[in-house]
Structures are given as structure tokens and as C-alpha cells.
Specification:
Structural class: mainly alpha
Order of helices and strands: HHHHHH
Shape: elongated
Radius of gyration: 17 Å
Strand content: under 5%
Number of domains: 1
Number of helices: 6
């Protein structure tokens, strides 16, 4: 049971990572530096250099993706364990509350050395949109995993 929820959480986190990375790249695109918001996340591993890399960089972009994906997989697993049993609209409410809690954790509890970093290059409204995308992605991915589970195993036609 816990193992199943954790595996569902990995899927939820991967979907959330893809969606939020897309939002970050989109906001960067508008500024003429598509990868800069995603690169800033790498500051956790590579230091302040990450804030100044606007284009693709082997080390910085890879580190940014790694930190981004791992943190959202952990968040997805946590959501799945805490709220995986919810259904329908309650799951969406939980996803919004969870994304708000993640934002509060990221910006109020974490030291700046471990904060996401993209808030340094995005406007406050854009940061709010990133967390709104996070909430929607978590809810959609959780709905997808539950619908797949309700259908049961697929029978393979020969």
C-alpha cells in the first residue's frame, strides 16, 4: 500500500516537474533567455554561477534539471502519501493547498542557499503562476494515476 502510493508519487512528481519546467522555460523565453530560470535552480549544487548562465550549459543546466526533478519527485511522493486517498474535487483542493505549502516552505522556511532560485529572475506574478502550474499538474497526475488504477491491469491482445 505505501509502496504503491510512493510509486504513484514518483509519477506525480515527474509530471509536475515537466509542467513547471515548461513554465520556467516559457517565462525565460519571454526574456530572451529560455533556460535562465531553470538554470538558477542549480545554485543549490553549483553556487552563484547558476544565476548568470542564460543559455544551455552542460554543468549548470544539468544540475538545474536534476535538482528540479528530484525536488518535485519528493514533493509528489509526499502528496501521494498525504492526500492520495482523496477523490474528485477534494484532490484538487488538496493539490492547491499542497502547492501553497510547498511555496511557503520554499520561501519562508528554507535558507536562501536552498531556495528554488528562479524567484531571483521572475516577477512575483510569474512565481505564483509556477506554483499554480504545480498545483494543476499534481491534481491532473493524481487523477490520471487513480483512473489507471481503477481500470485495473490492461489485458494484452494477441
Amino acid at each position: 500500500m505505501l509502496r504503491d502510493r510512493l510509486l504513484r508519487g514518483v509519477w506525480i512528481g515527474l509530471v509536475a516537474a515537466a509542467a513547471t519546467a515548461g513554465a520556467l522555460v516559457g517565462f525565460g523565453w519571454v526574456r530572451g533567455a529560455p533556460l535562465q530560470p531553470l538554470n538558477t535552480v542549480a545554485h543549490v549544487l553549483v553556487g552563484s554561477r547558476a544565476f548568470y548562465v542564460h543559455d544551455a550549459d552542460r554543468l549548470v543546466t544539468s544540475a538545474g534539471l536534476l535538482v528540479h526533478v528530484l525536488s518535485l519527485v519528493i514533493a509528489g511522493m509526499l502528496f501521494s502519501v498525504l492526500a492520495g486517498w482523496l477523490r474528485g474535487a477534494w484532490r484538487w483542493v488538496a493539490a492547491v493547498a499542497f502547492a501553497a505549502a510547498v511555496a511557503a516552505f520554499d520561501f519562508l522556511l528554507l535558507p536562501s542557499r536552498l531556495a528554488p532560485g528562479f524567484e531571483t529572475v521572475l516577477t512575483r506574478g510569474e512565481v505564483v503562476m509556477v506554483y499554480a502550474v504545480l498545483a494543476a499538474a499534481i491534481a491532473v497526475a493524481a487523477d490520471m494515476t487513480m483512473k489507471h488504477e481503477e481500470r485495473g491491469p490492461r489485458s494484452e491482445a494477441i
